[in-house]
Every structure is written in C-alpha cells, then in structure tokens.
Design goal:
Length: about 450
C-alpha cells in the first residue's frame, strides 16, 4: 500500500538538541530531497548538503538520506534530513516540506502505522515498538526489544501454524472417513498436540503478572504500627524527604508513593498510615487505604520498633512478607542476637544499618517475579483475553463431539491467535494501538 499523501514530522526529541531529524515518508520524499538538497543523493548513504528554503535562502547545512521503498522502515520512499537541532531550523524545515503539494504533518504513530499496513511489522511488534520508545528501565528495554524483534509474534505464529495443521488433519479425516488409508493414530496425535498446546498457552498466560511487574513496577508496601519508622525508611529509599517524619504516632495518613529504578527494575514503594486500633477519624481512613494497598502488593515490609515492639496485627494479602526490626542503633548487639523476636532484616535509618542488604533483598525478589531475561510473556491484556479465548476453544474442541464441530473450534482458536498478531480483522484496534505513539514515530 503506497499512500497518495506523504507525511512529515520531527522524528527526534525535544528542541533544542544537538541534532534534529526531520523525516518524510511517501511519494514526495524524492521531490523533497531534490528541492531542498539541490538534487538526489545515493540511496541509503548519508550525504552532506546545503538545505535551501523554497525561495532559495539557506536553512542549514546537514545530512540527508534516501531510503527507497519498499526497503525502508515504512515500506514507502523515505527521506531524512539531519539538521542542527534548533527550534527555528527545525520549524523552517518542517514548514518547507509540509508546504509541498501532497505533503502533510504526520499524526502520532503514523510512520509506524504505514509500516504495519505495508507488512513491515505485525501488531505485536508494533506494540513492542511503542514499549521500546517508552521504556525507562533496563528490564523494560530488554523485554520490549526482544518482542519488537519478533520473539512474541513467533510464539503465536507457531501455535497458529500447529492449529492450522491440526485442523487440516481432522478435516482430511472427515473427508476420507470411509477409506482405510487414514489411520486413527493421526487424529490421536493431533488431539494430543492440542492438549499440549492448552498447557503451553496456560503457562504463557500465567506469565502476564511478570509482564505487568516489568511495565508497572514491583509493588512494595511499608506497613507497621504508628512510629515504627515507616516514613523514615520510605525517605531513605526515596533518598529525599518525601514523607513527614515526627515522633508523634499517627503522622502519616495518606498513601505516599515513590518509584525507584532498582537494578534496572521499576519498583514502587508505598508508605502508609500506622496500623492501630481506635484511631482518629482521618487516621482510620488512612488505615483502610493501607490495608487495601497491601492486598494488591507483591511484597510487604512489616516494620516493628525493636525498642518498643507493638503488634500491628495481620493484614490479609497474598504478598510475600518481610518482617523488619527498626531503630537498630538504639538496641545493643547482644539484645539483637538473643532477642525473642525473629526478624528477616534489622535496620536503622539513623546510621544506615541493613539498608543496602534490604534493597538487595527487594531487588532479588523483584527479579525472581520478573523471571529470566528472555522469557516470552504476554505484554498486553489484549493478548491475554485472546489467549484465554483460544484456550477455551481448544478445550471444547478436545472434549467435544462430532469431528465437524471440533474442526470448527480449531478454526476459531487459530482465528483468535491471528487477531493477536494482526493477521486477521483488526481494523477496530488500530486507532487504540497507534495512539500510544508520539508524533514522528
Ligand atoms: N536515522 C534513523 N535511525 C533509526 C531509524 C530511522 O528510521 N532512521 N529507525 C526507525 O525506526 C530505527 C531503525 N529501524 C529501521 C528499520 C528498518 C529500516 C529499513 O530501511 N529496512 C529495510 C531494509 C533493511 C535492511 O537493509 O536490512 C526493510 O525493512 O526492507 C530502517 C530503520 C532506529 N534508528
Ligand atoms: N533512633 C532512631 N529513630 C528512628 C529511626 N527511624 C525512625 N526513627 C524515629 O522514630 C519516630 C517515628 O518515625 P516515622 O518514620 O515518622 O515513623 P512512622 O512509622 O512513619 O510513623 P507514623 O507515620 O506515625 O505511623 C521519629 O521520631 C523518627 O525520627 C531509627 O532508625 N533510629
Ligand atoms: Mg509515617
């Protein structure tokens, strides 16, 4: 598909910058180079040229590249002008190119949309490209680049191929039911492969929580009785005075959150109101919020003042729990070693005791949840929903009666996988997916 309209945008970031890249895709790319750079350049080779405005004045000295379609990012002819990254320079270039007949400013994600429509990327790779551009942590980048390169798509495509093969076998059996040369063991093999796929898809779906942790962060909630030292730990982890600390019990009422990059992983830490019976009105609301937050957490840090231990009570949650003794600086060494309480960690925000070990422990637990680098995980709820439907059709195909019906269910299952990668009927999804991009991508 070659669009009649060419599109232009600033494809590099915020101005001013050292260099800015102005990119045009579509049939007017060639004309833009001829007009602005005074003549065509060699394909795919950076060439230094003077760039001139329509009336002939010099805009800048810069590098220009031409990528002939279909061998380009978008699949169309593409030109790039690399200019000095000033605001006025970039605006003059954009204005000049958008002033040509048949050229308009690109919408967000429109270059990538053309790449998708021209078959350069599938839908999952497109989503991964959006993730790559938005990646802030090393774990997010690793995950996104692997999927942008097609790892996730390859998995779905291989399942889809297996299903198409399975269905062909079952339909052949229907067609040749009366003949002797289609052995029954063929259909046994097919259904045992379908059973295996149900297991593989189920296992893959289970990985979604790991993908959510990579994207949204590993959720750590600090809990404990009033004055246990929660906000002091929170501030130490945030490396700033993010929360108010006083010696008055009941200082913190609202949830406070910081996001850390811990060894390349996104980790969200929440400070909460001290848990106690018979609190004041505002505090009671804070305590309810703390309990609700704890329910959705991955890890609870349950703090207790070792000088004045108060049982904060149990909080229902599936999260892992680390019991932490605080204010170690106030407690003698022997007391700690032989004390009645068992703590997973002992810290002091006063003298820094145990903080590095605690962070290491949190990072280890987050890494264990994320799984091994290279694991292929579903990266969108959209994928999980379609995978669930796929699994549902496979399950009823497996236990169903009548070869025709069962073959039809295999078809429906393969169709759902096709929807994930965009091989079938996805027009309705495109606007949602491309709205995740910035202009120029
Ligand atoms: N200057 C610049 N840097 C960039 C991009 C770009 O468009 N321009 N990219 C944009 O996102 C990324 C690189 N991605 C690209 C992907 C495909 C093709 C391309 O021309 N593909 C052809 C031929 C491939 C080949 O020669 O092996 C093709 O797919 O047919 C170019 C860039 C990151 N860096
Ligand atoms: N000596 C010592 N004092 C600490 C330490 N951590 C906190 N404190 C003190 O303990 C008191 C309570 O600390 P906070 O961090 O506000 O306690 P909190 O758990 O957030 O309390 P609430 O918000 O009221 O629930 C303050 O006076 C802190 O200075 C520590 O490691 N050593
Ligand atoms: Mg507090």
């Amino acid at each position: 598909m070659i669009s009649a309209q060419s599109i232009v945008a600033l494809s590099s970031g915020r101005l001013p910058a050292g260099i800015a890249v102005i990119r045009i895709s579509g049939p007017r790319s060639r004309f833009a180079i001829e007009t602005i750079a005074g003549g065509m350049v060699k394909d795919r080779v950076a060439t230094l040229r003077k760039f001139r405005a329509t009336e002939g004045s010099v805009i800048d000295n810069g590098l220009v590249l031409f990528f002939p379609g279909p061998g380009s990012f978008t699949g169309e002819d593409v030109a790039e002008f690399h200019v000095h990254g000033g605001r006025a320079v970039s605006m003059k270039m954009l204005e000049t190119i958008a002033g040509f007949d048949g050229v308009r400013h690109a919408e967000p994600g429109e270059f990538t949309r053309r790449a998708f429509l021209n078959g350069k990327l599938d839908l999952v790779e497109t989503e991964a490209l959006a993730d790559l551009v938005n990646a802030e942590t090393e774990a997010q980048r690793r995950f996104a680049v692997q999927n942008a390169e097609g790892a996730q798509s390859a998995l779905y495509s291989s399942w889809r191929r297996r299903l198409i093969h399975a269905r062909a076998m079952i339909e052949a059996e229907i067609d040749f039911a009366d003949e002797d040369d289609v052995p029954g063991s063929v259909s046994d093999a097919v259904w045992s492969d379908v059973r295996a796929m149900i297991g593989e898809i189920g296992h893959h779906i289970d990985g979604f929580h790991a993908a959510e942790i990579i994207r949204d962060g590993y959720e750590v909630v600090i809990l404990g009785a009033p004055n246990a030292g929660k906000s002091s730990l929170f501030n130490a982890l945030a490396r700033r005075e993010a929360a108010i600390v006083t010696d008055e019990p009941g200082t913190t009422r609202d949830l406070l959150e910081v996001v850390l990059d811990l060894k390349g992983m996104r980790v969200r830490i929440t400070d909460t109101a001290g848990l106690r019976a018979a609190p004041g009105k505002v505090e009671a609301i804070g305590i309810e919020k703390a309990r609700a937050k704890a329910r959705g957490a991955d890890l609870l840090l349950l703090l207790e003042d070792m000088v004045d231990p108060v049982d904060a009570g149990l909080v229902p949650s599936d999260a892992q729990i680390l019991k932490i003794g605080t204010k170690a600086d106030l407690v003698g060494g022997q007391q700690l070693a032989g004390g009645p309480k068992d703590y997973d960690a002992v810290i002091s925000t006063r003298d820094g005791t145990g903080l590095t070990d605690l962070l290491d422990d949190v990072a280890r637990r987050a890494a264990a949840e994320i799984g091994r680098a290279g694991d292929i995980l579903p990266s969108r709820l959209r994928h999980v929903e379609l995978l669930d439907e796929t699994k549902g059709f496979l399950t009823s195909a497996l236990s169903g009666h009548g070869q025709e019906l069962r073959a039809e269910e295999l078809r429906l299952a393969a169709d759902r996988l096709g929807r994930i990668v965009g091989a079938v009927d996805v027009e309705d999804l495109l606007d949602v997916i491309f709205s995740q991009f910035c202009i120029g991508k």
